[in-house]
Amino acid sequence: MPTAAADPAEEAFAQLGMEVPLAQVDKELKKLWEADNAKTRASLINFAIYSEEVANLGRNNALLDGITAQHACRALMILSRPTDGEPRARAWINALCRPYHGQQTVCCEQLSFLLDGGGAAQVQNIVFAHLDSDLPLVVWWQGTLTRNFEERLSSRIATLIVDSATWANPCAEIDVLIDARERSGGKLDIRDLSWTRSHFVRLALAACFQDPIACASLPRIEEIAIRHAKGHRVAALLLGAWVAQRLGGQLDDRLPGFQFQRAAGGPNISVTLEEVPSGNALQSLSLKGKDMSAVISRDADSPYVHVCGSCGDHRQDEIFPADVETETELISEQLSRAGGTTLYSTMLPALRKMVGRAGCD
Amino acid sequence: MMENPFQETLFQRNRAEPCTVVIFGATGDLTHRKLIPAFYNIAACGDLPPQFKVVGFARRDKSDEVFRAELEAANRKHSRQGHNDELWATFAQGIHYHRSEFQDLEGYKSLKVQLDKYDQERGTAANRLFYLASAPEFFEPIMQLLREAGLNEGADGKWARVVCEKPFGKDFASARKLNDTVNATFDEADTYRIDHYLGKETAQNIMVLRFANALFEPNWNNRYIDHVQITCAENLGMEGGRGGYYDTAGALRDMVQNHLFQLLSLVAMEPPTDLSADSVRDEKVKVIRALRPLVGPEAVTQNVVRAQYCAGSVDGVQRVGYREEDRVNPESKTECYVALRLMIDTWRWQGVPFYIRVGKQLPKKATEISVHFKKPPQVPFATSKMLLNSENTLVIRIQPDEGIALRILCKQPGQALSVQQVKMDFHYSSSFGNASPEAYERLLLDAMAGDATLFARRDEVENAWKFIDEIQKAWHKSDNPPPMCEYPAGSWGPVEADNLLRADGREWRLL
Predict the structure, then answer these.
(1) CATH 3.40.50.720 region(s) of chain B?
(2) Poorest-confidence range of A23-27, A268-272, B347-351?
(3) Considering only CB atoms, which chain A residues are within 8 Å of B405?
(4) Which of B259, B372, B427, B476 is catalytic?
(5) Does the pLDDT of residue B441 top 90, yes or no?
(6) Which of the listed residues A99, A127, A157 is the one where a domain comes to its end?
(7) Cβ contact (<8 Å) for A212 and B7?
(8) What CATH homologous superfamily does B19-165 map to?
(9) Do B124 and A101 touch (CB under 8 A)?
(10) Are B342 and B363 in contact (CB under 8 A)?
C-alpha cells in the first residue's frame, strides 16, 4: 500500500520542539520548565510571527533564535494554511535559552502553531489563548493583510510589523493599514521594515545637516535621487516622501512623476528613483540644488554610510553607522524602540498616492 | 539659524551641534581609558556631531600622529563596541594634540589660534567644550588662563562649556573657592560637574521607578517606609598605587559626599515639576539641605562609624591591613569604611533613617539601594515569629548586575499556614538585550547637547560639603574624636556598624 507523501510543514514543525495537545500547552510548558535546567524565564512582550508560507518556517525559527537573544519575549510562530477542510490546529513548544553570567540560563518560550483551514477566527483564537498575560502583543504579519487580518485581532495588537517589500499589491495592503489605524483611533502602532531599512540614511542625513552651513542650503534643494535594489521601491518612495515632506513639500497632484511643491515657496522638489538589480535595499540618496549637493551612499557590505556634501567651497566628508539589513537586525531595531511612533502612519496617505501613481503592483 | 528639519521625529534626545572638545590632561589615564573610547562609541552609534574635533592639551611633547596612535591602542583595549579601523580612521582625523604647560598663557593663546583655524576650515565658528581631566591643583590656572586667552566665551554666538572631574574640592571652603574660580570663567549654566554614578542606567531609572509607577509613589514616605539602606561595597583595597590619593581623601570624601549623596537625593527627592536640569536639581539639593546636621563629636559618634580594615582574606586571597598598603601612611587616620545614620527633616521623611555604608575590602563588589517597607499589622497571621525580618523590600541594584528586586511574603504550600519570603527579580541584562552605553558616553553626549540634568550643580556640591565638614571636624579637630574601628578584610565591616542599626532594632541587609 503506498504511503502518503510527508507533509513538509509537519516535518519542519517537528524540528521546533515537542508537539503537545493544543489544550495542554500551558501545562506542558510548565513541565518543560520544571524538567529543564532553566533558571530564569524572561518576558517583556508577546512576539508573534504570522506566516502563510511553509518555506518561511526555517527562516522564522532562526530569526526567533536571534531575536530572543536580544529581546526577552514569549514567541508565537503561527503558520496558517488556508484549506477547505475542517479547521485543525496543532502546537509545538520549545525553550530558547541563553547562558547568563556564565551560569544561569535565561530562557524564552517558543510556541509554534500549525493551522489548517479555519480562517481569521482560528488565528485570533490561537493568538488570544496563548498570550503571556499583561504583556503587549507585537505581531509581525508576513501574510497578506487582506486575508485573516481582522478588526478583533488588530484591536489587541500593540505594534504591528509588516514588510512592504514583500507585498504583491501595495495599494491594497496600504489601504488595509490605513483602515486599521483609523478604526483603532490612531492607537495602532505600525512599523514597516521598508521604513526601517531607511533608518540609517535618515540618521546620516540628519547628522549631515547639523552642520549650520549645510543646513542653510536646505531651501535650495531641487532634486532628490534615490538608488535602490529591485524589490525595494516602496522603501525608496517612503524615503523620498519623507525627505520632501521634511523640506516642506506637498506632493503636487497636477504634475507628472513625483513633484513636491514647497508650501513656503521656493523651487519645487522632484523625487526620482533608480532601480538596480541587486545589492543593499537603499544604496544612495542624492540631494541637489543651486550651489549645493549632498550624497549619502553605502558600499555593498560596508557597515558604514558615507556622507559627502558641498555648499560652495564648504566641504563635508563623514561616515556614520549603517544598520545591518538582516531581518533579525531589522526586527530587533523595531523592538528596541519603546513607545509608539506615528511618523510612518502619518506618511501612509502620501505613500498611497505615490504607489498608486507608480502603478499598484 | 535655520532648524535642521531632519532631526525632528528622528531622535528622542537632544543632538549636539558641531563642537571641539579640548581635554586638559590628555595624556592621562582618564583620557585613554574612558574619554576617547566614549567619544569613539558615540561615533559608532552615529551620535557624534559632524566635523567633531578633540584637542588634547598636555605638557609632554608629541605630534598629532603619535597622540592618535596612543589613543588608538587604548581604544582597541577599552572600547565597549570593539574597534573598527574604518571608523577609527575617520574619527582620528579630528584628533589633534596641543603641547603646553598648564600655567603658560602663550599655550592658551596658541590654542585659540589653533581652534580659530579649525573654525576657518569648517567655514563657521564652532562650539567649545573644555574638559578638565588634569590634577585638581591645575584647575585654577587653567580657568584663569582660559579667561585671559578669551576662550571662555563662544565666538559668534556659539557656546563654551567646561566639564569638571571630581574631586570638587576636599571640603566646603576649597569647593567654594574652586567653584568661584570656575564661575569667574564660565557661567554656572555652562559648568558641568561629572559624577559618573549619575550616568549609570539604574541611577537614571530611580526617577522612572518612583514617579512612573503608581504602585510605588503613594507609598514612598514615612507612613509606609521603615528605613532605607544604601550600600557601596568594594572587594578591592589599594591596588595599583591608589593608596596615595585615597589616603588623603578617605571613604567619606571619596564616595559619600558625591556618589552616595547623589543616590540619596534621587531616592528622597520630591517629584520635579518637569524634567529640565534645574527642576530636577532643585529637588535634589533640597534633600541635601534637609539632612539633619551631625554637629559635634557626640552626634558623630552616635550616627557615624569609621573604620580601617586589618589583615584578612577576600575570595580566599590574603590581604594586608590598610596601614600596610602601598603608599598608605602607616600611622594613617583615614577611614576606608564608613557607615552613617542620616535623617532627612522633611514632611515626607520625618522619622525614617537612611543608613549608608561604603567600604573597601568587603566580601563583594556591589552598589545597591534597598527600601525597607513597614511591616503590616500582624493580625491575623498567628505568631509574630512568622513575620520576623520579613518586611517588603525593594532593592535597586546600581552595579553590577543592574536591576530591581522586590521581596514579598507568600504562603508556603502545605497544610500549615506558614509565611515565606519570595523575591521577584528583574535583571537589565536578561530582559534588555542591548548593552547600555557607558556612563561617560551618556554624560559627554549630554554635555555636548547642553543637558545638565545628570551633572552636579554648585549648590548641591557645596551643601554636601557643608554636611561632610562637620563629620570631618569631629574626627580630626575635636579633643575626644570618635574612635577609628577595625574590621578584617573580607568581612562586612566593623561590629560597631552592625550595632549602629541594632540600636534601632534593625540590621544591614544581607547582600
Answers:
(1) 19-165
(2) A23-27
(3) none
(4) B259
(5) yes
(6) A157
(7) no
(8) NAD(P)-binding Rossmann-like Domain (3.40.50.720)
(9) no
(10) no
Higher pLDDT, A287 or A155: A287
Note if B259 is an active site residue.
yes
Nearest CA in chain B to A73: B431
A38: pLDDT strictly greater than 60: no
Domain spanning B198-502: which superfamily? Dihydrodipicolinate Reductase; domain 2 (3.30.360.10)
b/e per residue B352-382 (b: at least 16 CB within 10 A): bbbbbbbbbbbeeebbbbbbbbeeeeeeebe
Q: Which residues contact A256 (CB under 8 A, 6 or more apart)?
A: none
- Best of A96, A134, A215, A332 to substitute, by most chain B Cβ atoms within 10 angstroms, is A215
* CATH 3.30.360.10 domain position(s) in chain B: 198-502
Q: Tens of pLDDT along B42-60?
A: 999 888 888 899 999 999 9
A81: left (phi over 0), alpha (psi -120 to 50) or beta: beta
Same domain, A207 and A139: no
Angle, helices B139-148 vs B172-185, to 10°: value is 20
- Please indicate, yes or no, whether residues A60 and A204 belong to a single structural domain of this protein: no
User: A21 in a domain, yes or no?
Assistant: yes
Look up the domain containing A149 and give its range. 8-157
- Cβ atoms of residues A241 and A354 within 8 Å: yes
Q: For residue A148, name the pLDDT band (cuts at 50, 70, 90).
A: confident
Q: Which of residues 9-48 of A touch B (CB under 8 A)?
A: 40, 42, 44
Q: What is the mean pLDDT of residues A155-169?
A: 90
Per-residue pLDDT tens over the stretch B154-203 = 777 789 999 998 888 899 999 999 999 999 999 999 999 999 888 888 88
Min Cα separation A31/chain B (Å): 19
Residue to test with chain B: of A104, A210, A296, most B Cβ within 10 A: A210
The overall average pLDDT reported for chain A is: 85
Residue B230 is placed in which grid cell?
A: 544604601
Give just the sign of the alpha carbon dihedral A275, A276, A277, A278: negative
Distance from CA of B113 to the nearest CA of A (A): 20
Give the per-residue pLDDT at A135.
84
pLDDT at B287 over 90: yes
Predicted pLDDT of residue B53: 93
Distance, in angstroms, between B6 CA and closest chain A CA? 5
